[in-house]
């Protein structure tokens, strides 16, 4: 099955529209949040801390989210998540203090975690043909298209935010008027996504299914096989985002414009990762996961050791491609191996580890780089941010040895209902 065949499926096409528009809203809201925190505090550290709050609660909220996505119908979860996020987006300009912004970021992170596993669990259901589950290649292509469109929303969201800010300056809007315009567009994006989801057929789990706790997912061999690689990916990406800006500015002397180019290249790399995932089909999904995570670790080590723009910018593309191929392989493996509420449960564990691991890695990498910058005991002639990346890359590479194929390649249906 090719991309054209996928897009000819009306239900899957609706899900793609819903996902893409919601992802646009996510990134537009992220840029608005950063701008608002910077405007009120003038602190880049505060802005980074609020962003971490969007991801870190995933670990704490994951047990509750697991109960929701294994008990509620996926379409209802998607619609509820969009409706709540639309309300949160509309409220952003009117929050009175930094503490309210922190609470807003936490709430948005929790609701976002509900959306992702419900979306991924819906993909195999929407691609069924005459009652038969889709094959691994079809799922991998569908996940690749979904992830590529999500990554495309990063520059589109940034462009929309910049255009609205420019327009507000042109019209001499003052106070929070410019942020109201951004929030209105953000809320509208979530409502459009809600309308698209509403047209989907009814998805599982069946009504009255027994909800399951997150710890149940850890008993699934498939989940245990995938999570080490997902944790490695989150470690690498979190470390890069935490120390990337100071490394590009202070070591590469490329300034914040260079870091902006770095973020844009992450989107390019994500598209390359979709193509790379198709080229790795011969290695099998577990092999693809191992190769992707190992490649990411090696690239991060090289980025930390080589303080050169000639390597950093192509290295960023390679890093994003490797991370994307790993995540596509992990999501596809869980979709193909698990079924029923167990599929949603496993995907919840994957996204919880990815988001919370990203936040923890970003916080730890920032603290480590700051600590190394204040000491003269560093044994090698490498910038503190570079040393942090080298250590993170080694951890990512070593993490690939924890990825093991389940005994007997158990593909049994996991139904918790």
Automatic annotation (TrEMBL):
| Keyword Transmembrane helix applies | yes
Places the protein is found: Cell inner membrane
The UniProt transmembrane annotation reads 12-38, 44-64, 98-118, 139-167, 179-201, 222-248, 254-277, 289-311, 317-334, 346-365, 385-403
Look up and give the membrane topology term: Multi-pass membrane protein
Say which domain of life the source belongs to.
Bacteria
Keyword annotations:
Cell membrane, Membrane, Transmembrane, Transmembrane helix, Transport
Keyword Cell membrane tagged: yes
Name of the featured protein: MFS transporter
Q: What does the entry list under GO cellular component?
A: plasma membrane
Q: What is its main location?
A: membrane
Q: Entry's Gene3D superfamilies?
A: MFS general substrate transporter like domains (1.20.1250.20)
């Amino acid at each position: 099955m090719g991309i054209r065949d996928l897009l000819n499926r009306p239900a899957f096409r609706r899900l793609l529209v819903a996902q893409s528009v919601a992802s646009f809203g996510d990134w537009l809201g992220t840029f608005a949040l950063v701008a608002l925190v910077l405007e009120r505090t003038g602190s880049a550290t505060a802005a980074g801390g609020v962003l971490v709050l969007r991801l870190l609660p995933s670990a704490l909220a994951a047990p509750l989210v697991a109960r929701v996505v294994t008990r509620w119908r996926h379409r209802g979860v998607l619609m509820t998540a969009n409706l709540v996020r639309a309300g949160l987006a509309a409220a952003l300009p009117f929050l009175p203090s930094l503490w309210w912004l922190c609470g807003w970021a936490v709430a948005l992170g929790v609701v976002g975690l509900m959306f992702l596993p419900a979306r991924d669990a819906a993909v195999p259901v929407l691609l069924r043909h005459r009652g038969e589950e889709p094959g691994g290649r079809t799922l991998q292509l569908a996940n690749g298209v979904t992830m590529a469109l999500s990554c495309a929303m990063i520059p589109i969201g940034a462009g929309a935010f910049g255009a609205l800010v420019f327009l507000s300056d042109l019209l001499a809007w003052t106070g929070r008027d410019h942020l109201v315009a951004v929030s209105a567009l953000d809320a509208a994006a979530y409502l459009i996504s809600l309308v698209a989801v509403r047209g989907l057929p009814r998805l599982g789990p069946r009504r009255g299914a027994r909800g399951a706790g997150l710890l149940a997912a850890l008993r699934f061999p498939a989940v245990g096989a995938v999570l080490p690689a997902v944790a490695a990916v989150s470690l690498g990406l979190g470390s890069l985002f935490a120390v990337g800006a100071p490394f590009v500015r202070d070591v590469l002397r490329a300034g914040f414009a260079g870091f902006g180019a770095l973020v844009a290249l992450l989107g390019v790399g994500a598209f390359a990762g979709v193509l790379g995932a198709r080229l790795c089909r011969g290695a099998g999904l577990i092999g693809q996961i191992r190769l992707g995570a190992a490649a990411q670790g090696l690239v991060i080590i090289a980025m930390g050791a080589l303080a050169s723009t000639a390597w950093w910018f192509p290295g960023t593309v390679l890093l994003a491609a490797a991370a994307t191929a790993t995540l596509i392989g992990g999501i596809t493996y869980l979709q193909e191996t698990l079924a029923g509420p167990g599929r949603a449960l496993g995907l919840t564990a994957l996204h919880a580890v990815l988001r919370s691991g990203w936040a923890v890695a970003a916080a730890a990498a920032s603290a480590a780089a700051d600590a190394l910058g204040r000491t003269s005991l560093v044994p090698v002639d490498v910038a503190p941010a570079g040393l942090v990346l080298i250590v993170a890359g080694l951890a990512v590479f070593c993490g690939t040895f924890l990825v093991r194929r389940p005994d007997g390649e158990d593909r049994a249906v996991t139904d918790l209902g």
